[in-house]
Structures are given as C-alpha cells and as structure tokens.
Amino acid sequence: MDHISPANIKLVVFDIDGTLAPSKSPVEHDMALLLAQLLNKKLVAVMSGGSYKQISEQFVASLPTDIDYKNLFIFPTCGTSMYTFEQGIWKERYADHFESEEKKMIMDALKQALDGAGYVQPAQIFGEIIEDRDSQITFSALGQLAPLDLKSTWDPDRSKRAHIIELLQSNIPGFEARIGGTTSIDITRTGRDKAFGIDAIVRELGVPISEMVFVGDSLGAGGNDESVKKTGIATVAVADPDETAVFIKTFL
Prior knowledge:
By secondary structure, the chain is an alpha/beta fold. It is built from seven helices and eleven strands.
C-alpha cells in the first residue's frame, strides 16, 4: 500500500467486485452510506470489467436515493466506456464499441478455444456464459451470476483460463484476452486494460495522477487490477469490502 494523505487526494477510484461488494452482489447498506459521505468530500469513480447495466444494478441502485451524483463517474468494461450523471439521468460520455464483424470473430475464436481447452458447460449455469458488453466480450465459466462459493473453486490458480487464453489470443488480432474476475476472461481491444481506464479518467476529468488513488482487491501479480500500477497512480490493496470501509473512513 502506498502512503496516502487524504488531503492530497481529489479523486478515489474503486474496483467493485471484492472491493465495494462481494462478487456480483449488491453493495451493502453500510458501504453505500460510507460512499455517500465520501461523495460529499471527494470525486469518486468506479471502474469494473462489468457492463454498465451490471454496475447500475449492483452499485448505483444500492446508493441512497437522495445522493448528489455530480461527483460520481462510472467506467464500465475497464474504462472502455464512461457514464456521467447529467440532467437527471446517466449518459454515455464515450464508448469503444465493437463492430458486428469483430464480435463474430471474437465469439467464434472463443468457442474454438473453449473446445480446444476441453471446457464443458456445467449442467447448471447461472446467467450468460458468453456476454456481449459492446466494448468487451466476457466469458464466465459458470455463468455471470454464479454464487461466489462455486466460482472460487473452479479455477483458483487461474491455470484453466491461462490455457484458454493461450489458445485464443492468436486468433483475435487487434484484441487482447485477459483473466478477469474469479471465473472470467475479458476480451477487449489491445491495451484496453484498467491502466487504459485510469488514463481515460485523467483525460476526461482533468485530475492528475498525483491527486488520485486506486482501491482494489486484485492488485497483485496477474490480478485484474495490477495494470493500474503502470500509470503511477497510488494504490491501496484490500482483501474485501470490510477493509475498503476502513480505508474510506480515513477520508471522512
């Protein structure tokens, strides 16, 4: 963890799954209240591999209804799109959407890689296995909404997904496959990782890296938050939402 002086920080960037809430679960009431208090003091951005719809249901819907959203910014799919609250609604500020031909190429290559890796779809699935998020295609081995206790045992050492990515990558020129959450693989244009998202935040909001901090649960080697370190942003590694709550309280 970098040394963080709240007085020097203008904007706090949060991962969601494992950071603000358990994987694919709503933000809990106490966390929502803390975030509402933080928004009265700082700019806040949330950046996730999830779609805008997922973030809206999991995160935004959990916040107090009387919150002032002007200090909140949403960056779905690792920052390949951005939403701001304007005139009473959330509006897409930019997006790096795939063309239909690109989506077909990725879907075909992904299915071929899954077959080559010996992936067998479970008898019981929870939501979509392959999800089109417009600026990202995501594979979730047990379904997007699988319970965390099941997901955590499917590929704990990431070796299954590493093998799938090895088979997939050469067949998606111009695109990049990365390990995402507990059971997922995210496919974006090359270089569209969370470092790309941080650069987008700097560009769109005009806040320098020196006045930002990123909070996430997967900042270690191979984690889906690790790439933010390339930008030089200060980082805070947390194990779960409880640790995130302790960090937020230092700003209040």
